[in-house]
Amino acid sequence: MNTAAVMLQQSATTTARLKRSVETLHPAYFAMVMATGVVAIAANWFHLRWIAVPLGLLNVVVFAVLAVMTVARVLFYPSAFWRDLTDHTRGVGFFTIVAGTGVLGTEFILIFGHYKSAAVLWFTSIVLWTGFTYAIFTSFTIKEQKPTLAEGINGGWLIAVVATQAVANLGTWLLPEFAGYAEPILFFSLALWLCGGMLYI
Q1: Are 120 and 56 in contact (CB under 8 A)?
Q2: Which residues contact 85 (CB under 8 A, 6 or more apart)?
Q3: Would you identify the CATH topology of the domain 28-200?
Q4: What are the C-alpha distances in Å from 90 to residues 35, 65, 140?
Q5: Which candidate, 53, 167, 44, 30, places its Cα nearest to that of 100?
Q6: Of 86, 82, 63, 103, whose CA–CA distance to 140 is shortest?
Q7: d(CA 147, CA 134)
Q8: Whole-number average pLDDT of the chain
Q9: Which of 74, 43, 169, 173 is nearest to 117 (CA)?
Q10: Which of 52, 74, 113, 118 is the one with CA 20 to 30 A from 147?
Q11: How far apart (Å, rounded) are the C-alpha atoms in residues 73 and 121?
């Protein structure tokens, strides 16, 4: 087998693996964005910029890669995406996308001082939160065949709370950017925070 054939075979194998990775992408992978962002923000609070900045930049890359893979999954593997969205054990993992978006937006403010980027992420997180909240819980409710409580509910459901309050938290950090709309933003953020509390209860 010549070199060109070997390279072609390796390329085909790599492409197949990439497609498989996109198709089977777990919705909760955005938890990496959440975790990395929390560590970066904590480091920044302790004035450890040499830790916060690299982690913040890494998080931007991780978020971008996962976002591209998720969009590709929606476009090329919609049935796999929908199957996860309506699954009692995996569906709630999509809320890590909302929480990760909110945490990344908070990073942009606290670590990089980019309020406009954070605002874009905030509006994105609101749209995602609204879409996932209604889609996931509605699909769970109207599903004909449901698992038992022991099988269907797990600790991952608490991500819905984290996602809701991540959106609320980012909204409060954006007040300096939208000073003229402070009251409605505070009201909206408080309402979301309380909604997250009710989900927890």
Answers
A1: no
A2: 27, 91, 94, 135, 136, 139
A3: Glycosyltransferase (1.50.10)
A4: 19, 20, 12
A5: 30
A6: 86
A7: 20
A8: 92
A9: 173
A10: 74
A11: 21
Contact yes or no for 102/163 (Cβ under 8 A): yes
Q: How far apart are CA 95 and CA 162, in angstroms?
A: 8
Of 122, 130, 100, 120, give the one whose Cα is nearest residue 27.
100
Query: What is the C-alpha to C-alpha distance for residues 25 and 19, in angstroms, rounded to an integer?
Result: 10
Instruction: For the chain, give the DSSP string.
Output: --HHHHHHHHHHHHHHHHHHHHHT--GGGGHHHHHHHHHHHHHHHTT-HHHHHHHHHHHHHHHHHHHHHHHHHHHH-HHHHHHHHT-TTTGGGGHHHHHHHHHHHHHIIIII--HHHHHHHHHHHHHHHHHHHHHHHHHHHH-SS---HHHH--GGGGHHHHHHHHHHHHHHHTTTTTGGGHHHHHHHHHHHHHHHHHHH-
Rg (CA), the chain: 19
pLDDT tens digits along 57-110: 999 999 999 999 999 999 999 999 999 999 988 999 999 999 999 999 999 999
Contact 119, 181 (CB under 8 A): no
Scanning the structure block, which residue is given the tokens 């390329």? 11
Residue 75, by phi and psi: left (phi above 0), alpha (psi -120 to 50) or beta? Answer: alpha
Average confidence (pLDDT) over 110-133: 97
